[in-house]
């Protein structure tokens, strides 16, 4: 029998499904939206060209169509989801680009209409740690008093040498400062990390998980690196190929990483989604379900749980 308490389906890690069901007592779906923000790492404020893996959509390949109003984007996706889950409620997820990169007036006009949607139980906002001024964080706190607010914060790696190589445009200290500002206000933070960044060794990725596991965070998304056509990453690879993470190593790595993450941290993702037409590598990532199954299998085989080694 599975002794792990934070899963309804025999997983050995704290599943997002478990968290949502437990909190809301019903099916909750996330609706990805594109509010048309840009990113300071693209427009020259912090950097130009963006992170080398980032697509034109600002890592929001599955967010709504930016040319539609947010209301229409929400309507379209929620109607589709309702066909599958007739009674479900929603989290409005501002996914594409950097969603706190704008004036306070713009942020208010973007997020606040969703406070009036009866079927929206919460708002999730994806952003960068260098777009979290005290003023913005004060506003986010205000917003959190009116709805369930989740902040998704990109880190990707704790290693500054990799951050520089991928043109991340901020270092680990900046991430810590942003996180501290959010946590000072008791805002829920889900951190994103990526496995398979160029030239990162297995040990470096484990180190990222160990360090992240010691931070005051509430959620974690672990992704594999996607190489998409025509990104700077793809061009870099074509010029000078670097070793790619194999499926087997990814699974082994994720299992070990999970052991360093306290079991209170909700694991929102263990693989990512990439637009198939643009995906160059890794092609093994397409079969997401089998990867998740093999992660479960290996955890069972080794008798490991999230947080086993904390
Ligand atoms: S911070 Fe996000 S949106 Fe900006 S360039 Fe990097 S991945 Fe793209």
Automatic annotation (TrEMBL):
UniProt cross-references to NCBIfam families, sorted A to Z = TIGR01212 family radical SAM protein
**SUPFAM superfamilies from the xrefs?**
Radical SAM enzymes (SSF102114)
Required cofactor(s): [4Fe-4S] cluster
Q: Which SMART domains match?
A: Elp3
Listed A to Z, the keywords are: 4Fe-4S, Iron, Iron-sulfur, Metal-binding, S-adenosyl-L-methionine
Task: Enumerate the GO terms in the molecular function aspect.
Answer: 4 iron, 4 sulfur cluster binding; catalytic activity; metal ion binding
One Pfam family, short name: Radical_SAM_C
Q: What InterPro entries does this protein's entry cite?
A: ELP3 (IPR039661), Elp3/MiaA/NifB-like_rSAM (IPR006638), Radical_SAM_C (IPR032432), rSAM (IPR007197), rSAM_horseshoe (IPR023404), rSAM_sf (IPR058240), YhcC-like (IPR005911)
What is the name of this protein?
Answer: Radical SAM core domain-containing protein
